[in-house]
Structure formats: C-alpha cells, structure tokens
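Tip: read the tokens left to right.
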C-alpha cells in the first residue's frame, strides 16, 4: 500500500513530498514497533528472554515432515482453493472499515452542493469534522501544518481505508486546499495506517493473542501520528533549503 500511495501522489503531480512522507513513515513504524514490543513484554514477561529462533532436534524435524508429499497438481489446486477462501475472508474483514467508517467520515466532512442544496450527489454532508478541526486549528497546524480544516478528513478516513482516503486528494486539489506539506503528511500517515482497522483483529486472532488487539491499535495510532508530525517538520526543513 505504501508503494501505491507514493505512486498515486506522484501521479497527482507531486515529486518530492511523497518521499518526505516515506521518511516520516520510517519513524512512525519504529515508534509503533517499539511500543508493541513494550506492551507485549509487559503482558508476557517471559518474552523478554525467550529466544526468537527455536532449535529443533533432528527427530523433531523428521516428525514435522510430511511422509507423503503432495503432487504438483494437488499443491496448485490447494493454493487456488485456499487462496480464494482467504481472499474472501480478508474482503469481508475489510468491509466494516472501508464501507462504514469511510462513508461516515465523508458525510461529516463535506457540505452541501455549490448552490447550498442537498442533491444526493457524492461528497455532500454536514461539515462537522471541518468545524471541529477549525476549533483546534492551532493544534493541527502546528503538528501537521494543515492550512485548511477540511484536510483532517484524510487521516480520519485512513483509519478506515487508505484507498478511500486517497480518493479524497483530487477533490482537495480541485478546492485548492492542498499543498506539498499536506501531501508529505498524507503519505506518511497513509503508509503507517494502511489496514488500520481491517488487520489487527485478524492478525492477532491468527497468532492466538486477541487480547493484545487494543494494544496493537494504540501502538498503531501513535505510530501514524508520529509519522505525520515528522513528515511535516522534515518538509519544513526541506522548504527552507
């Protein structure tokens, strides 16, 4: 998703800002990873000293081998069937974030049509989030350098789906709300928050640690915010050069 985000931003005519966002995402990922390690070791103190790589005896290795290897045809068939099943499961897991959250954010971000009436067209809503962001504009401007309160819609939408958040960029450009700094921040946050609500539960369920889901979301949230802040201030330095 990070590669898609950078390519998309470059395709919108921004050449330097997306790579500043990439740098910001490095810091966000480091913070998120270290926080998750802290939360995990606090919940499971034994992991502080547990070896990451287990050493197996020759007998254990032999016991794990399949005595009857499958044919090439069966391996291909299993890959197709299992891959299709998992693809559907992933799609169903993504729907709540993409559909519900993204739709809600768009309704709360944009206002009525140009003539002030509600026509039922796309991107019409009640502008609640920009109103709230305007009240906190000093905070958002200092942390992220946002010049317009509408820009807060991108990080909020990214919580549901980064792909849906990217779709907001052309409209921001058309309205004249966006600049290179915002693109850098969007890229950084988008790369860190990709799959935000669609992956934590599924991943931790698969690992058998569902109880750490809230910790993972907390670490992920802080990491994304750090990425956006770093991207903003790095862009400030770049702009001064």
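Filled-in amino acids:
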């Amino acid at each position: 998703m990070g590669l898609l985000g950078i390519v998309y931003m470059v395709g919108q005519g921004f050449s330097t800002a997306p790579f500043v966002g990439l740098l910001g995402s490095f810091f966000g990922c480091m913070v998120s990873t270290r926080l998750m390690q802290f939360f995990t070791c606090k919940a499971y103190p034994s992991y502080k000293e547990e070896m990451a790589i287990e050493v197996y005896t020759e007998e254990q290795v032999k016991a794990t081998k399949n005595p009857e290897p499958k044919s090439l045809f069966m391996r291909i068939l299993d890959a197709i069937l299992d891959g299709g099943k998992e693809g559907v499961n992933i799609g169903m897991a993504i729907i709540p974030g993409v559909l519900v959250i993204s739709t809600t954010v768009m309704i709360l971000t944009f206002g009525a049509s140009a003539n002030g009436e509600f026509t039922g067209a796309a991107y019409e809503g009640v502008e609640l989030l920009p109103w709230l962001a305007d009240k906190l504009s000093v905070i958002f401007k200092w942390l992220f350098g946002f010049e317009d309160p509408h820009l807060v819609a991108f990080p909020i939408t990214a919580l549901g789906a980064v792909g849906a958040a990217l779709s907001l960029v052309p409209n921001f450009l058309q309205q004249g709300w966006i600049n290179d700094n915002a693109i850098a921040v969007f890229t950084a946050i988008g790369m860190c928050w990709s799959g935000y609500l669609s992956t934590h539960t599924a991943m931790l369920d698969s690992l058998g640690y569902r109880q750490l889901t809230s910790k993972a979301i907390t670490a992920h949230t802080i990491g994304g915010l750090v990425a956006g802040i770093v991207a903003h201030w790095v862009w400030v330095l770049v702009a001064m050069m």
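The chain has a mean pLDDT of 81. The two ends are 30 Å apart (CA to CA).
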